[in-house]
Write a structure and sequence with these properties.
This protein is an alpha/beta fold. The chain is 38% helix and 17% strand. Strand 6 and strand 7 form a beta hairpin. It starts with a helix and ends in an 11-residue tail after the last helix.
Length: 352
């Protein structure tokens, strides 16, 4: 009898999650450290409104790490929702499909700015994206003016740009698993890299080579990976007034008594400049839902309703008070419907 029971349990575990008669009794959310504070607040509000349901668990694993966990399969050992500070990649959606996670629902929740901030004990930096590229890329254009690349020779900001301080380049930022790092590479590093016309021309010939030039961060100690804990970067900056940290706008907003954000192309990272897209380093924020878990893990639909309510993500919602930049009204309506109807993301949608 015991042997047959064990076989039955093993058979159930191998089936689709939707057929299993037991499940977690709370929602599992993983992913972006940038979206983490917003998801945590939503989870708290959810808990207050639904006393009959257990509050969701929210973990900060980074966008890439969260999507890897999310796409690993269906079942109690995999997350229901993953947050991302960049859009899911085609390769990640394919990983989901390969592991039979076929119903992925995309919900864009708002916008965020990536800031380069330093201690309020030191002057505010004024940087261009070209400055950022020259300071942090692994290889940079030869200072002799020739159209060739050399290992990054710059050790101080003044060497990069004579108008900048004569202090060591020391940038504390996220690791490669972070969506912030991906967006920083695309928007800030590449934004400066493509200012060189001869490098920009490489893109049409060899996209991989172009990306390697524009996105690869130097590894000689001037860029220091700090893991997925943005609060740790804030603490480090308090003790290193001339160092710069890279993180999302919400952390700047919540720590304005400790750090201030650099001007990028003469634009300050502020709620209004990110909302109107005049701030050059801004990006959309998302979460992704595993459709096969809806109706099996209690509370997912209620959590989606809470996150996409006007009281949460609206112009005057509590997430805006936490530093998230709301979507325009038409986009909020679109993604609210996506969440309500569990509209599945298709590979072709990522090309739009």
């Amino acid at each position: 009898m015991k042997k047959s029971t064990s076989l039955l349990i093993a058979a159930l575990a191998a089936t689709s999650f939707s057929t299993v008669s037991y499940a977690r009794d709370n929602i599992s959310v993983v992913g972006s450290s940038t979206v983490y504070p917003f998801a945590t607040v939503v989870a708290e509000r959810f808990g207050r409104k639904h006393s009959d349901l257990k509050a969701p668990t929210v973990e900060s694993t980074g966008s890439g790490g969260g999507l890897k966990l999310f796409c690993s399969g269906n079942g109690v050992d995999t997350p229901d929702i993953t947050n991302a500070s960049r859009r899911i990649k085609e390769s990640e959606l394919q990983l989901c499909k390969d592991n039979n996670v076929n119903g992925v629902v995309e919900v864009q929740i708002g916008f965020d700015g990536i800031v380069l901030a330093n201690s309020i004990k030191a002057p505010t930096y004024k940087l261009s994206r070209k400055d950022i590229f020259l300071a942090l890329a692994k290889e940079v254009p030869n200072p002799d003016g020739s159209e060739s690349l050399v290992p990054n020779p710059y050790t101080t900001w003044k060497q990069v740009n004579a108008t900048l301080p004569d202090v060591k380049i020391e940038v504390l930022g996220p690791p490669p698993t972070s969506g912030t790092r991906d967006a920083f590479a695309e928007l800030a590093l590449e934004g400066g890299c493509k200012k060189y016309e001869w490098i920009a021309a490489i893109k049409a010939q060899d996209k991989n080579k172009y990306k390697a030039i524009c996105h690869t961060v130097r590894g000689d100690g001037h860029y220091v990976e700090m893991g997925e804990n943005d609060n740790l970067i804030i603490k480090k900056l308090e003790n290193k007034p001339e160092a710069i940290g890279v993180f999302g706008f919400s952390f700047l907003d919540q720590n304005s008594d400790k750090v201030h954000g650099a001007l990028i192309e003469d634009v300050a990272p502020e709620f209004e400049s990110i909302a109107d897209k005049s701030y050059p380093i801004s990006r959309p924020l998302f979460f992704y839902v595993k459709k096969s878990h809806v109706g099996v893990v209690p509370g997912i639909e209620e959590y989606l309703n809470e996150f996409t309510s006007e009281s949460a993500w609206g112009d005057s919602g509590y997430l805006a008070n936490k530093g998230m930049i709301p979507l325009p009204e038409d986009l909020r309506a679109k993604f609210k419907e996506n969440a309500k109807n569990l509209v599945e993301l298709k590979a072709e949608d990522l090309k739009k």
